[in-house]
Design brief:
By secondary structure, this protein is an alpha/beta fold. The chain has one domain: 3-Layer(aba) Sandwich (Rossmann fold). The chain is 44% helix and 16% strand. It is built from eight helices and seven strands, in the order βαβαβαβαβααβααβ. It has helices spanning 13-24, 37-47, 64-72, 97-122, 136-140, 146-166, 191-199, 209-220; strands spanning 4-8, 28-33, 54-58, 79-82, 128-133, 171-178, 231-234. Helix 3 (64-72) packs parallel to helix 4.
Length: 240
Protein backbone atom coordinates (compact mmCIF):
# COMPACT_ATOMS: atom_id res chain seq x y z
CA UNK A 1 0.00 0.00 0.00
CA UNK A 2 2.94 2.34 0.54
CA UNK A 3 3.58 4.98 3.15
CA UNK A 4 1.21 7.80 4.04
CA UNK A 5 2.28 11.30 5.06
CA UNK A 6 0.11 14.12 6.37
CA UNK A 7 1.22 17.57 5.21
CA UNK A 8 -0.53 20.47 6.89
CA UNK A 9 -0.56 23.80 5.08
CA UNK A 10 -0.14 21.90 1.81
CA UNK A 11 -1.62 24.72 -0.29
CA UNK A 12 1.15 27.13 0.76
CA UNK A 13 4.41 27.64 -1.09
CA UNK A 14 6.52 25.37 1.11
CA UNK A 15 3.71 22.84 1.59
CA UNK A 16 3.16 22.48 -2.15
CA UNK A 17 6.87 21.96 -2.79
CA UNK A 18 7.00 19.26 -0.11
CA UNK A 19 3.89 17.56 -1.51
CA UNK A 20 5.29 17.46 -5.05
CA UNK A 21 8.61 16.01 -3.97
CA UNK A 22 7.07 13.37 -1.68
CA UNK A 23 4.62 12.37 -4.40
CA UNK A 24 7.55 11.94 -6.78
CA UNK A 25 9.17 9.67 -4.17
CA UNK A 26 6.04 7.53 -3.97
CA UNK A 27 4.40 8.75 -0.76
CA UNK A 28 0.61 8.65 -0.44
CA UNK A 29 -0.51 12.02 0.85
CA UNK A 30 -3.09 13.59 3.08
CA UNK A 31 -3.02 17.22 1.98
CA UNK A 32 -4.44 19.60 4.54
CA UNK A 33 -5.50 23.11 3.56
CA UNK A 34 -7.72 25.85 4.92
CA UNK A 35 -8.44 28.72 2.51
CA UNK A 36 -6.36 27.76 -0.53
CA UNK A 37 -9.08 25.73 -2.22
CA UNK A 38 -8.15 26.62 -5.82
CA UNK A 39 -4.46 26.00 -5.17
CA UNK A 40 -5.32 22.66 -3.60
CA UNK A 41 -7.49 21.66 -6.56
CA UNK A 42 -4.62 22.43 -8.93
CA UNK A 43 -2.14 20.54 -6.75
CA UNK A 44 -4.48 17.55 -6.43
CA UNK A 45 -5.00 17.38 -10.19
CA UNK A 46 -1.26 17.51 -10.74
CA UNK A 47 -0.36 14.79 -8.25
CA UNK A 48 -3.12 12.23 -8.59
CA UNK A 49 -1.63 10.91 -11.83
CA UNK A 50 1.46 9.63 -9.99
CA UNK A 51 -0.12 6.26 -9.00
CA UNK A 52 -0.48 7.38 -5.41
CA UNK A 53 -3.38 8.28 -3.17
CA UNK A 54 -3.88 12.03 -2.73
CA UNK A 55 -6.49 12.98 -0.14
CA UNK A 56 -7.28 16.70 0.38
CA UNK A 57 -8.70 17.64 3.78
CA UNK A 58 -10.02 21.10 4.60
CA UNK A 59 -9.76 22.27 8.20
CA UNK A 60 -9.03 25.47 10.10
CA UNK A 61 -6.14 24.65 12.41
CA UNK A 62 -6.46 27.98 14.17
CA UNK A 63 -9.43 26.37 15.96
CA UNK A 64 -9.77 23.28 18.15
CA UNK A 65 -12.53 21.99 15.89
CA UNK A 66 -10.14 22.06 12.93
CA UNK A 67 -7.77 19.64 14.65
CA UNK A 68 -10.65 17.25 15.36
CA UNK A 69 -11.85 17.44 11.75
CA UNK A 70 -8.39 16.70 10.40
CA UNK A 71 -7.73 13.77 12.75
CA UNK A 72 -11.08 12.17 11.93
CA UNK A 73 -9.98 11.90 8.29
CA UNK A 74 -6.59 10.27 8.94
CA UNK A 75 -6.28 6.47 8.81
CA UNK A 76 -2.97 4.83 7.99
CA UNK A 77 -0.12 7.21 8.86
CA UNK A 78 3.67 7.05 8.69
CA UNK A 79 4.69 10.71 8.88
CA UNK A 80 3.49 14.18 9.82
CA UNK A 81 4.88 17.36 8.28
CA UNK A 82 3.43 20.38 10.06
CA UNK A 83 3.87 23.27 7.63
CA UNK A 84 0.86 25.42 8.54
CA UNK A 85 1.67 28.97 9.46
CA UNK A 86 0.92 32.66 9.52
CA UNK A 87 3.25 35.54 10.33
CA UNK A 88 1.61 38.80 11.47
CA UNK A 89 4.08 41.68 11.32
CA UNK A 90 4.05 44.52 13.81
CA UNK A 91 4.88 45.64 17.32
CA UNK A 92 3.81 43.35 20.14
CA UNK A 93 2.04 46.27 21.82
CA UNK A 94 -0.26 46.51 18.78
CA UNK A 95 -1.19 42.82 18.60
CA UNK A 96 -4.80 42.06 19.53
CA UNK A 97 -5.64 39.33 22.00
CA UNK A 98 -7.54 37.61 19.20
CA UNK A 99 -4.39 37.51 17.05
CA UNK A 100 -2.33 36.18 19.95
CA UNK A 101 -4.86 33.42 20.66
CA UNK A 102 -5.06 32.47 16.98
CA UNK A 103 -1.28 32.25 16.62
CA UNK A 104 -0.91 30.18 19.78
CA UNK A 105 -3.58 27.77 18.57
CA UNK A 106 -2.24 27.47 15.02
CA UNK A 107 1.45 27.15 15.83
CA UNK A 108 1.54 25.60 19.30
CA UNK A 109 -1.65 23.98 20.55
CA UNK A 110 -2.78 22.52 17.20
CA UNK A 111 0.49 20.71 16.41
CA UNK A 112 0.66 19.48 19.99
CA UNK A 113 -2.89 18.11 20.10
CA UNK A 114 -2.71 16.85 16.51
CA UNK A 115 0.40 14.88 17.37
CA UNK A 116 -1.14 13.63 20.61
CA UNK A 117 -4.16 12.25 18.73
CA UNK A 118 -2.16 10.73 15.87
CA UNK A 119 0.78 9.24 17.79
CA UNK A 120 -0.96 5.86 18.25
CA UNK A 121 -1.16 5.51 14.45
CA UNK A 122 2.50 6.47 14.04
CA UNK A 123 3.61 4.04 16.75
CA UNK A 124 2.19 1.10 14.80
CA UNK A 125 5.17 1.46 12.46
CA UNK A 126 8.75 0.37 13.06
CA UNK A 127 9.87 3.80 11.89
CA UNK A 128 7.74 6.94 11.79
CA UNK A 129 8.65 10.59 11.38
CA UNK A 130 7.36 13.94 12.61
CA UNK A 131 8.73 17.17 11.14
CA UNK A 132 7.87 20.68 12.24
CA UNK A 133 8.53 23.52 9.80
CA UNK A 134 9.60 26.20 12.26
CA UNK A 135 11.61 29.33 11.42
CA UNK A 136 14.94 31.06 11.83
CA UNK A 137 13.07 33.51 14.05
CA UNK A 138 12.27 30.70 16.47
CA UNK A 139 16.02 30.34 16.92
CA UNK A 140 17.15 33.94 17.14
CA UNK A 141 14.05 36.17 17.45
CA UNK A 142 13.10 39.23 15.43
CA UNK A 143 11.79 42.69 16.26
CA UNK A 144 8.29 43.30 14.91
CA UNK A 145 7.85 39.53 14.85
CA UNK A 146 7.84 38.87 18.58
CA UNK A 147 4.64 36.83 18.47
CA UNK A 148 5.82 34.77 15.48
CA UNK A 149 9.25 34.24 17.06
CA UNK A 150 7.60 33.09 20.27
CA UNK A 151 5.40 30.42 18.70
CA UNK A 152 8.16 29.21 16.40
CA UNK A 153 10.50 28.92 19.37
CA UNK A 154 7.82 26.87 21.14
CA UNK A 155 7.75 24.49 18.17
CA UNK A 156 11.48 23.91 18.54
CA UNK A 157 11.10 23.17 22.26
CA UNK A 158 8.22 20.79 21.45
CA UNK A 159 10.40 18.87 18.99
CA UNK A 160 13.31 18.57 21.42
CA UNK A 161 11.12 17.28 24.24
CA UNK A 162 8.88 14.96 22.23
CA UNK A 163 11.84 13.38 20.44
CA UNK A 164 13.11 12.06 23.78
CA UNK A 165 9.69 10.80 24.82
CA UNK A 166 8.96 8.72 21.70
CA UNK A 167 12.44 7.64 20.57
CA UNK A 168 12.12 4.09 21.91
CA UNK A 169 8.77 3.78 20.09
CA UNK A 170 10.52 4.20 16.74
CA UNK A 171 9.27 7.74 16.13
CA UNK A 172 11.81 10.35 15.05
CA UNK A 173 10.94 14.00 15.63
CA UNK A 174 12.87 16.83 13.99
CA UNK A 175 12.51 20.44 13.00
CA UNK A 176 13.43 22.49 9.95
CA UNK A 177 14.09 26.18 10.51
CA UNK A 178 14.00 28.02 7.18
CA UNK A 179 15.33 31.52 6.76
CA UNK A 180 13.74 33.83 4.21
CA UNK A 181 11.95 31.76 1.56
CA UNK A 182 10.56 33.01 -1.74
CA UNK A 183 6.85 32.44 -1.04
CA UNK A 184 3.70 34.53 -0.78
CA UNK A 185 4.48 35.15 2.88
CA UNK A 186 6.97 37.86 1.87
CA UNK A 187 5.07 39.27 -1.12
CA UNK A 188 4.26 42.39 0.89
CA UNK A 189 7.93 43.46 0.87
CA UNK A 190 8.97 46.12 -1.63
CA UNK A 191 11.80 45.53 -4.09
CA UNK A 192 14.06 47.69 -1.93
CA UNK A 193 13.15 45.74 1.20
CA UNK A 194 13.77 42.44 -0.59
CA UNK A 195 17.16 43.65 -1.77
CA UNK A 196 18.06 44.69 1.78
CA UNK A 197 16.96 41.29 3.08
CA UNK A 198 19.03 39.43 0.50
CA UNK A 199 22.06 41.54 1.41
CA UNK A 200 21.85 40.11 4.95
CA UNK A 201 22.05 36.51 3.69
CA UNK A 202 25.62 35.23 3.16
CA UNK A 203 24.70 33.22 0.05
CA UNK A 204 23.08 36.37 -1.37
CA UNK A 205 19.58 35.13 -2.17
CA UNK A 206 16.33 33.84 -0.74
CA UNK A 207 15.68 30.13 -0.37
CA UNK A 208 13.44 28.41 -2.88
CA UNK A 209 10.55 26.34 -1.47
CA UNK A 210 12.03 23.28 -3.18
CA UNK A 211 15.14 23.58 -1.01
CA UNK A 212 13.00 23.30 2.12
CA UNK A 213 11.27 20.31 0.53
CA UNK A 214 14.60 18.57 -0.10
CA UNK A 215 15.54 18.95 3.57
CA UNK A 216 12.14 17.56 4.54
CA UNK A 217 12.51 14.56 2.24
CA UNK A 218 15.90 13.79 3.80
CA UNK A 219 14.48 13.83 7.32
CA UNK A 220 11.64 11.55 6.18
CA UNK A 221 14.03 9.07 4.57
CA UNK A 222 15.77 6.07 6.10
CA UNK A 223 19.02 8.04 5.79
CA UNK A 224 17.95 10.06 8.85
CA UNK A 225 16.92 7.17 11.12
CA UNK A 226 19.57 8.03 13.73
CA UNK A 227 18.66 11.73 13.76
CA UNK A 228 16.06 12.98 16.24
CA UNK A 229 15.45 16.10 18.30
CA UNK A 230 17.41 18.24 15.86
CA UNK A 231 16.86 21.62 14.22
CA UNK A 232 18.03 21.66 10.60
CA UNK A 233 18.66 25.30 9.69
CA UNK A 234 18.09 25.99 6.00
CA UNK A 235 18.88 29.69 5.92
CA UNK A 236 21.81 30.37 3.59
CA UNK A 237 24.05 31.19 6.54
CA UNK A 238 21.78 33.94 7.85
CA UNK A 239 21.97 32.51 11.37
CA UNK A 240 24.51 29.96 12.57
Amino acid sequence: MGKFALITGASGGIGQAIAKLLAHEGWNLYLHYHQGEERMKTLHDELRGDSIEVIPIQADLSTRKGVTTLCENIFQLDAIVYASGDAPYGLLIDMSEETIDRMLQLHVKSPLTLTQKLLPKLMRNESAKIIMISSIWGQTGAACEVLYSTVKGAQIAFVKALSKEVATSGVRVNCIAPGAVKTAMIDWLSDEELAALESEIPVGRLAQPEEIAEATAFLLSDKSNYITGQVLAVNGGMYT
